[in-house]
């Protein structure tokens, strides 16, 4: 099939419906780029076409105006690839990043750290910060056990909390 504008082979086929009438256009890549604004790119993989279509029509491109002045990344690009471009992105996208981190880390937004087991073994006691972290985890687990009516587990957790506090 030949291009509607020139005699080159048509590689872009567009179908448009206007007021109930079907309008078909058969164009070569150059004419499609010139008249329809389509990019000149041969053999685009179907997964890339679908991704671009979904991103364009799903509303995921909100905040396209917010761009990092250092690396040029947008929030939509981060959501698509999962990687930031530089250290400044954490401050720039903090408002959107915080709920994402909370969902991923059980409502925690700050790193609390870990204590090596050999440090506990050599000193014989758990550092104070570690105790408070364990207490909050124990209390959350106790609350879940009560909600699930697992009273045996709740009693064990209650005793563990009393022992840690005492």
In spatial order, strands of the major sheet run 1-2
Q: What's the N-to-C terminus distance?
A: 85 Å
Q: How large is the count of helical segments?
A: 8
Global geometry: elongated
Low-confidence stretches: none
Number of domains: 3
Roughly how much helix do the residues carry, as a percent range? 40-55%
Main sheet, how many strands, which sense, barrel?
A: 2 strands, antiparallel
**Total strand segments:** 2
Radius of gyration: 29 Å
In short:
This protein has 166 residues and is mainly alpha-helical. It is 50% helix and 8% strand. Helix 7 (128-147) runs antiparallel to helix 8 (151-165).
Can you describe this structure?
With 166 residues, the chain is mainly α. The protein folds into 3 domains: 12-43, no CATH class; 62-111, no CATH class; 117-165, no CATH class. Helix content is 50%, strand content 8%. It has 8 helices and 2 strands. The protein has helices spanning 29-35, 46-57, 75-81, 89-92, 94-104, 117-123, 128-147, 151-165, and strands spanning 12-18, 21-27. It has a two-stranded antiparallel ribbon with strand order 1-2. Helix 7 packs antiparallel against helix 8. The longest helix is centred in the C-terminal third of the chain and has 20 residues, at 128-147. It is elongated, with a radius of gyration of 29 Å.
